[in-house]
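Continuing the series of single-chain predictions for the mutant panel. This is the parent chain; the variants come on the following pages.
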Amino acid sequence: MKKMLAAVVMALALTLTGCTTFTPISAGSGEIGEKKGTATAVQVLAPYGIDYLALLNFGNNSMLKAANRAEITKVATVDAKETRILWGLVIVKTTIVTGE
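Parent structure:
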């Protein structure tokens, strides 16, 4: 009984884990400064690999929104961070912009 309970707990723990990836998107002409802006969007029930078919979408992870939040006028780098939770049923996408 204890082994079965331990197996169930381990299986549940594995389903709740997430996977996070960072991807460089572009580099601008600005110098990498101290300013760093982020913008986040959440997608719920998105089929794997077909993000635009998500059932629910919240937020705006555009480069422009991230740059405006940090008052960046000269973009140096743009990176994307994506975290998939529950086999990708919930996807958290963050755009990270650095510059001056």
